[in-house]
Amino acid sequence: MAPAMDRIRPFQYIKTMKPKAETPQNPANPYDLDKLAFTWGEMLSMSGELMREMAEKAKTNPVGEAPIDPFNLRGAMTALLDRMLQQPEKLTEAQFALWRNYLTLWDSTLTKMTGGEAKDVIETDPGDRRFKAEEWHKDAMFGFIRQSYLLTAKWLQQLVEQNSGGLDPKAAKKLQFFTRQFVDALSPTNFAMTNPEVLKTTLETGGQNLVKGMRNLLEDLRRGHIAMTNENAFKLGENIATTKGHVVFRNRMMELIHYTPAGSTTYETPLLVVAPWINKYYILDLRPDNSFVKWCVDQGHSVFMVSWANPDATMRNVGFEDYMKEGILAALDAIEKQTGAKSANVVGYCIGGTLLSMTLAWLKAKKQDARIKSATFLTTLIDFENAGDLKLFVDEEQIEALKAKMSKQGFLDAETMKITFSMLRANDLIWSFVVNNYLLGREPFPFDLLYWNSDSTNLPAKMHEYYLRHMYLNNDLAKPCKISLGGAKLDLGAITTPAFFLSTKDDHIAPWKATYAGAQIFAGPVHFTLAASGHIAGVVNHPANNKYNYWSYDKMPKKPDAWLEKAKQSHGSWWPHWQQWLEDFAGKKVKAVDPAKGPLKPLSPAPGVYVKVKA
Predict the structure, then answer these.
(1) Amino acid 2: pLDDT
(2) Which of 93, 130, 226, 522 has the fewest CB atoms within 10 Å distance of its CB?
């Protein structure tokens, strides 16, 4: 064991590490600090490139154009500090509590350094993947770093939470959220000198991981975002979004894909899937072994998919009415021409489901609701009262700032939206890639889901401002006749179309209790099902994987917790459960329509043209 004093100095500690066995790929002892093969010339050259690239970025994004307080935190922070100063005894007590924990930790660390056994002062959450390397738990020095960080992070978060009770609830939640962002950013895993895995890799590679990491950073700056996966490993229509079919209709808003039937017959009622236009449709068609689209085709459905256009400045005035009329309604018209069916079963995912609810209310007001036989909502918000952490980004000041930004380019750029979603899970979607790409100098692993996540879309200015103001801020969609669309006042409480709601237990975008509140608005029969996992993995769960469970219960008590108490838990995917429900509305089997030979002329093979347009 290394001497105790050496154990609390990283550079002295790593001298004691045993080198790997000598191999052709590892010919010499890589752990001699004096012989680390840093290529300083290359590092300095790349540093100059980084500075030039950052200077170019600054020209296109001038500091003066950005709001000084982009998240409108200043007022809430001032109120919090005032509250803390009014109760100095509580602040002092909290500081002493933290100091006592530090002393206990130091005593525990000294015991471990001298060969003794001591329990951790604070346990690491088993789900926290930042501290998975064994050095964080077996080495006294890194154990001290880990625990001191966790103690401080917990102390700071509790301090903010305990002193924000008298603030406006929205302001209090905002402060607590951004405090979490702050402590996540300061994790010792995010810095080379306090991350044992980075230190070990630096010694093994002679510093080449840092050279490669700097090169990755430079490439990401030019790309405009952190690379989450090898973006060259996937090609649409070849190894992702591969289900066969044809685009049979196209307008400025969307392409309609008709997938090739699995057999000679299909259910007589077609199935229309309305994907979200925040990201692209092929989340439901990643690979054959996890494709919701292919699975539906294999069950005997005649499946159609809406693939939305990626907006540019020409679509600045596009709103929800355009998405409804030139999206869902136009798709229903095209499906009728293609199949002869006067009604369809419709699936809406996320904001696609929100649009579906608006369309159902519009059809009801126009006495045309028979056009949709059943409606399925996947992780869909309708009642936005408790819409989760995304609401923290929505207040009047932030909407006005976004409006000013969008007025110049006509849309909200994809990168802004992607960063917002990434902040909801910063450790998984930001900091893990900072460590992997820049500190460890590794290439991101080829992963279809992260490729899709990086393939973002712009959002039209008019639509996005309306969405934030009337749904997230004012929750108007949940209120009868507060929203007008296409000449009709929307009353979701008048909808009698049978509906299936699928929510996910760990959803950070559409919290399940909020989606449950939306499901209670409808007047018709509603079946609510809750799947395990989150907004994506809980939905894309092929029955062959049997990875997650789901809960179901036919009745809808007022409180979601009461529903969960009564719900039956079942093993495996929710897809067969939904198929069983859908069969009541699918009709008999009829002769299948081949999209290559149907009444509508095929315009291009699936996945079409619009999905390939990059933001």
Answers:
(1) 36
(2) 93
> Looking at the structure, do residues 162 and 302 belong to the same domain, yes or no?
no
Check residue 125 and report its DSSP letter: P
CA gap 318, 283 in Å, rounded: 24
Closest residue by Cα to residue 505 from 478, 527, 537? 537
Contact 375, 346 (CB under 8 A): yes
Instruction: Let me know whether 153 and 266 are in one domain.
Output: no
SS3 content of the chain, % helix, strand, coil (to 5): 50, 10, 40
d(Cα 146, Cα 153) in Å, to the nearest integer?
A: 11
pLDDT over threshold 70, residue 1: no
77-115 burial, b at 16+ Cβ within 10 Å, e below that, comes to bebbeebbeeeeeeeeebeeebeebbeebeebbeebbee
Residue 591 has phi, psi (to 5 degrees) of -60, 130
What pLDDT score was predicted for residue 138? 92
- Mean pLDDT for the stretch of residues 381-401: 92
Residue 258 and residue 158 share a domain: no
For residue 133, what are its two tokens? 């390397």
* Whether 303 contacts 339, CB under 8 Å: no
Q: For residue 591, what are the β-bridge partners?
A: 265
Mean pLDDT of 191-202: 94
Model confidence at 81, pLDDT cuts 50, 70, 90, reads confident
Least confident of 238-252, 466-480, 539-553: 539-553
The 3-state DSSP class for residue 208 equals helix
- SS3 readout for 67-101: CCCCCCCHHHHHHHHHHHHCCHHHHHHHHHHHHHH
163 burial level (CB within 10 Å; 0-12, 13-18, 19+):
buried
Q: What span, in angstroms and rounded, lies between the C-alpha atoms of 225 and 70? A: 20
Q: Is 350 a catalytic residue?
A: yes
Calculate ∠ Cα 22-27-33, nearest 5°: 95
Check whether residue 180 and residue 249 sit in a common domain.
no
Assess whether pLDDT exceeds 50 at residue 27.
Answer: no
Tokens of 336: 């009728």
Strands 265-267 and 254-259: unpaired
Residue 175's closest CA among 282, 78, 317? 78
CA distance 39 to 595: 58
Distances (CA, A) of 239 to 230, 232, 244, 541: 13, 11, 12, 19
Q: Measured at the alpha carbon of residue 539, what is the angle toward residues 454 and 444, in degrees to the nearest 5?
A: 30
Average confidence score pLDDT of the chain: 89
**Which 3 state secondary structure label does DSSP give 605?**
strand
Residues 144 and 63 in one domain: yes
Segments forming the whole domain that contains residue 149: 6-206
Range 418-421, long-range pairs (CB < 8 A, 24+ positions):
418/225, 418/453, 418/454, 418/456, 420/390, 420/393, 421/509
541: nearest Cα among 206, 368, 289, 237: 289
Total domains, the chain: 2
| Among 137, 291, 228, residue whose Cα is nearest residue 425 | 228
Q: Of these residues, 46, 241, 330, 350, which one is catalytic?
A: 350
